[in-house]
Specification:
372 residues, alpha+beta, 4-stranded antiparallel β-sheet, 57% helix
Length: 372
């Protein structure tokens, strides 16, 4: 009985964040989604090591080839994981070209192999990759392992998905964080001060919200100078997405401030001489921070779709840099997709990431009301 009372007291005396964490742990979809997102972000951080090839590596022989077939038996003997080299065959009647596996020798798949050089975590040089293909059983070279197949230039889609995830996962996250603080700041000013300040801010929000997103992306992207570096383009895309996405957060914060600014504890703080900004950031914002975190989590998928759409339309990241949107440009032709369906693989990662963030946001939304 004593244990039950202790547990009950512990429940009612626990902080809101503790109660949120407890309820979130019980949400299976949210837990699974969190694991998936952690794996995706770890893959993005260590993409250079995990990817067998760099963005610059290509092989014209492998243009538009399907995912590489992996074998284990050669001449009836189990020799471990290996692949065959592709061989070009020309039909002398119609001069059509087909690619077939050259089974005269096999190429073993090895782990921790040396390949193209890169900067590990951007700090020091390395050429070690998680896996790759060694020399053939007869000393031959030139075989490739492309788990997701190759694009129209003969580049490994698996490597490009991993390397592209660094942009597709980081730009939306960075822009969502900027939008989060921008929305809180502008929304709090609008809701707390009211009057003409509130009217001006709300009209600005309505104007931004009234403009269709694609024309707005095009207008903002047109302001980017041509030929800018990848780093600058990254910065510009982050700013563009932040500029578009802060309005929803500002409206939420404004509504909360309108309902809370006349509460007794706020009036007491004013009478005590507490500064306006201290009242906003120390007394008002923490009162509904859990809902803001949920709003942030649910806003990131929209930013991911936004970045992917911009890159797909050619308004964002451009080759030789890559993102999931750039990879999907390869799948813009129905004919190309019909003959090379493996080019749609990058969209699977977009869908998984967006669903994972949505499920995590749903779990946090349920956990934000822990007494429910």
């Amino acid at each position: 009985m004593a244990k039950k009372v202790k547990s009950k007291d512990d429940y009612y005396l626990a902080s809101q964040w503790t109660l949120m964490a407890r309820k979130l742990k019980k949400h299976k979809l949210a837990r699974v989604s969190m694991v998936i997102l952690i794996i995706l972000y770890i893959g993005a951080i260590f993409a250079d090591f995990l990817a067998p090839y760099s963005l610059e590596e290509f092989d014209p022989l492998y243009r538009n080839t399907a995912p590489t077939a992996i074998h284990t038996k050669y001449d009836g003997e189990n020799v471990g994981l290996f692949v065959y080299k592709l061989d070009k065959q020309i039909n002398k009647k119609d001069f059509s070209v087909t690619l077939q596996e050259d089974t005269s020798e096999y190429y073993k798949i090895k782990f921790f192999v040396h390949g193209s050089e890169y900067k590990f975590l951007g700090l020091f040089k390395s050429d070690l990759h998680l896996f790759g293909v060694e020399q053939g059983s007869n000393g031959g070279t030139g075989a490739k392992i492309m788990l997701f197949g190759a694009d129209s230039l003969g580049r490994d889609i698996f490597s490009r998905v991993l390397l592209g995830s660094r942009i597709s996962l980081s730009i939306p996250f960075a822009s969502a964080i900027i939008s989060f603080f921008l929305g809180i700041t502008i929304g709090s000013i609008s809701g707390y001060f009211g009057g003409k300040v509130d009217m001006v801010i709300q009209r600005i929000i309505e104007v931004i919200g009234a403009v269709p997103q694609i024309p707005l992306w095009m207008a903002l992207s047109a302001a980017i100078p041509p030929g800018v570096s990848t780093i600058k383009m990254y910065f510009y895309m982050t700013i563009i997405l932040s500029f578009i996405n802060w309005t929803g957060m500002a409206r939420v914060v404004r509504g909360k401030f309108l309902s809370l600014k006349n509460e007794d504890y706020v009036m007491a703080a004013r009478l005590s001489g507490v500064s306006t900004w201290k009242i906003i950031w120390k007394h008002l914002v923490p009162g509904f921070m859990s809902y803001l975190i949920v709003n942030l989590t649910l806003g990131i998928p929209g930013s991911i779709v936004g970045e992917t759409s911009m890159s797909y339309l050619g308004l964002g990241i451009k080759s030789p840099a890559t993102s999931w949107g750039v990879l999907l440009q390869e799948a813009s032709s129905v004919t190309d997709v019909a003959t090379n369906p493996h080019k749609l693989i990058p969209i699977i990662f977009v869908v998984i990431t967006v669903l994972a963030y949505n499920f995590l946001g749903d779990g946090m939304r349920d956990a934000a009301d822990p007494y429910k």
